Amino acid sequence: MLGLLRVKQQRLKEAESFFQSAIRLNPRLANAYVNLGYLYKQTNQPELSLRNFQTAATLLSNNSEPLFNIALLLADSRQFDKAIQVLEAIRINARPDDYWDLLSRLYLSAGNFPKAEDSLRKVLARKPDSISTLRQLSGVALKLNEPQRAWQYLGDAVRLAPNSPDLLYEFAQLSLRNNLGQEAVIATRKALFLEPDRHDFLLFLGNALLNTASFHDALTYLNQYVRLKPDDASGQLSLGWALYLEKDFDGARKHLEECLRLSPDLIDAYYHLGMIAYETGDRTHARDFFTKVVDRKSDHASALLGLGMIYSSEQQYERARLSFEASARANGDEPKVHYQLAQVYSRLGNQDAARREQGLYAGAQKRVEERKKLSQSLPFSAAAIDRSKPNQH
Amino acid sequence: MKPVFTLAAILTAVLPYLPPKTQAGPEFVRFVDVTQASGVRFKHNTAPEKKYIVESMSGGVALFDYDNDGWLDIYLTNSLTVDTANDAKNSRSALYRNNRDGTFTDVTDRSGLGYPGWAMGIATADYDGDGWIDVYITCLGPNHLYHNNGDGTFTDVTQKAGVDDTRWSTGAAFGDYDNDGNVDLFVANYVDFRIKDLPEFGKGKFCQFRGVPVQCGPRGLPGAGDSLFHNNGDGTFTEVSKKAGVSDLDGRFGMSALWTDLDGDGWMDLYVANDSGPNFLYKNNRNGTFNEIGLLSGCAVGEDGNEQGSMGLAIGDYNHDGLLDIFVTNFSDEYNTLYRQEKGMFFSDVSFASKLAQVSIPYVGWATDFIDFDNDGWVDLMVVNGHVYPQVDNISVGITYAQRILLFHNEHNGTFSEVAANCGDALTARRVSRGAAFGDIDNDGDVDVVINNLDGSPVVLRNEGGNKNNWINIKTIGSKRNREALGAQVTVKADDLVQVKEVYSGGSYISQNDTRLHFGLGKKTKIDLIEVRWPAGKTEAFRDVPVNQFVVIQEGKGLSKAITTSSPQSNK
Fold it and tell me: Which residue segments constitute the domains of chain A, with CATH numbers given?
C-alpha cells in the first residue's frame, strides 16, 4: 500500500523500494511484481517492466493483466508476433474489453490484414456505433484490395455521422474508387454544403461530376476551384479535360498547357492533349502525345490503348497488339482493351486468342454492370451491408 | 485525384445543341413537307408523359405497292397507351393508297389493316409468291401476318401461318436464309414487358436521366429473345430460332434487323441492332444454322468497346469498294456508328473518321437509310431523331426532346458533311420521330421520305431537285416464290461509277423501305452494265441501259421498262 501511495505522489524511487521490500518478504506476491512492472514502464525501463510482468503472469494464471501488459511491451519493441502469441494465450473469459482492439492493432502492425479485419469486426460487434472502428475496417479492406467492402464499411460510418464533412469526403473518394460516381457526387455535394470553403471539396466534386459524365455541371466547380487556386496544376488538368468534354478544344488546350507549365511531370495532361488530337482527326499529334506519356510512364493504360487504336486504324495490327497487351497488363479490368485485343487477334488470324479476349471483354463488361447495380441500390444506404456475412479472403 | 477518362468518356461527351453549320453541299435539292397536300391525316397515339418505355418506341412506316399499280402506298403503325391498352380499337393504324397525283386516300377500313393492336413496326414481303405484297406487323402482344388478297383487302393469317409471337416485337425482316426459294421471317424482340406489372416511373437507377426521374428501361428490365420463322412453302412457317442459333439466349433488347449477304457467298447473313448491348452479326453457315460473330468481326459495339443503344439500321456500300457497310443509329451521348467492311468480313468503326459521329452525339437516332438523295452516284445518309424522355426539356443538358433530321452528304472521299440546313426547312424542324421509310413515292426519279412521329402527325417529305442528276430505278422479280427477289444483289456500272445494292425487307427502324433499287448516276448518260446476282446464285447481266427510267428485271426473262411517265409533281 505504501508503494502505491508513493506512486501516486510521484515518489517513484521510494515506491520501488517498498515494492522490492514486499517481494523480499513474500516472493510470491504477484501484485508487487505487477506494480513494479507499471513503475518501470512509467520510468521507461521496458526490460525491467517486462521481466516483472512475466513473473507476475506466472503467479497469476487467472488474471489477464500481466499478459496484456507483456503484449503491449512486446509490441512497443516491435515484436508483434510474440505479442500476438501472448494475447492469444489469454483465456476467453479473462479477456479485457479492449482485447480485440489491441489484437487488431497488433495484426495490423504485423501485416496480417485478414486477422485484423476479423478482430475489428469483433470490436464492432461490441460497439456497433463506433465510427472509428468502421473507418479502421474500411482502411483494412483497402489494404486487402477490397475497395467495395471498404466502401460499405465507410457507408455504415456515414449513416452514423451523416453530417461529418470529412467522413463524407472519404466516402466520396471511396465511391469514386469503386466507380460509383453518383454516390461520390452526392456525398461531396453534401460535404461542400457543410463546409463551403473547402477547396479540396470543390476540386473533387468537379472530378466526380466528370466521372458521371456531367461535364457541364463539373465546369462550374472546376472553374471556381481554378479561380481560387490558379497555381494548382491538378485543377488546371481537370478543368482542361472538362472543357475538352464540352468540346471547347481551345479552352481545354489552354488549361492543359497551363497545367504542364506548372507541373511538367503531370503526364495526364499530355494524354488529354492526345485525346483532343485523336478526336479532331489529328492522328500524328495524338500519337506524339500518347508516346510522350508512355515514354514517361510505360504502364499508362489509357495512353497505351490510344496508341493501339491509332495503330489499329492504320492496320498496323502487330504494333496495335503490343500496345493493347501492354495496356491490358496495366489495367486488365478495362473492357475496351479486351475488345480491341479481340479485334486485333482476330485480324491476325489468332482466333483462339481472339475468343479468349472476347471472354475477358464480356467478364469486364459484366463487372461494369455489377458496379452499376451496386450503385443502383444505395446512395447513402450502405448500411444495407449484411454484417453477418463472413469475410471472404 | 487524377481524372482518368479514356475513349469512352470522349465518345459519350455531351455536345451543346448547336445549330447545323452551313456546309457546301447539293444545294439544288430540297425536301419539302407535302403532308398537308398529300391528304395523309394520320396521328400517332402516345401518352404525353411517356411514363413507360412501351409508350416511346412505336411508329413504323412502310412504303410498298399493295395494289400493284406501280406506285408506292403508305402504311403507318399506331400504338395504344397503358391507359387504353384494353381495347385494340382504341388505336388505328392506317393504309393510304397512292392516287398517283401527289395525294393519298385512306383505305384502311376496306383493307382490314386498321387494328392490329399495340403496333410497333412493319415488314413486307410476298411470302407465298402469289405476286401480291403481304404485311407483317410487330406489336406489343401478338404480331400479325396479313395476307394480301389482291383486291385491296387483307386477311389475318397469323395463326394459320404459325408466325405469332406474343412478346414485344420490334423490327422484322423477310429473307430466304436457306436458299430454298421461300422467304423466311426474322423477328427481333425487345423487352419482356407486362402491362400488368409496370415498372414504376422514376424509381431506381435505370429510371433516371441526369438525375431526373424518367421511364424505366430497357436497362434494368428483362430482355426478350428473338424469333426465326422458316417458311415451309405451303403458307405455313416453323419457328426455328434455337436450332438456327439466332434465338438470342441472353435476351438482348432487339430493335432492327436486316438479312444481307455481307461476305458475298450467296447466303444471307443477318444483322440485328440491339438497344443497350452488343449488336449481332449472324454468319450463315449454309446449313440452316448461324454463328454470331459480331464482336470478333468488329461491328457489335463502338470502336472503344462500349455497348451502344442501337435503334435503326442501314446497309450499303458508301465507299464504292464493292463491300457492304453497316450504319447504326444510337442513343444520345453516344454516336451513330458506321462500320466499314474490310476484307474477310471484318469491320472498322469509322464513325469519327467519316465525320458522321461528332454531330450525332446529342441526338437519339432512329430510322435511317443509305439514300442517294442528290443522285450523284454516292449514297448519302438520312437519320430521323427524337428523344425518348419528354422530361429532358426540363433540364439544361443541351439535349431536347424533339430533334431535327440529320442529312449527311457523301463527299466521295470516305467522309460525309451534314447538310440538312441547306436542304429545306422541313429537315430542320424538330419532331419526335421514330420510323421512316425511303422510296420514290412520286415516281419522279429521286428518293422521298415518309416519317412517323410521336406526339404529332407523320411527315411526307418530297425530294425536289434530286432528279436533276440522272438515275435508274430497278425492280427485281425472282423466278421462284421469292417474287421480290429479296437478297438479290444488283451492281450498276456507268463508266467509272460502280455501285452495289441489295434488295431488303425491313431495316430502317421498324419500317419497310421501297424494295425497288434506286441508283443515282450523276451526269452519266448511259449505264454500261447492270449485273444481277439472284438469291439462288444465278447471275444475269444487261448492257447499255438508258438512264432515267424505271425498269423491271425478271429472273430469266430479262429487263423491261416499268413506268415511263412521271407524276404531276415531277420537277425536273
Answer: 1-96 (1.25.40.10), 100-161 (1.25.40.10), 298-373 (1.25.40.10)
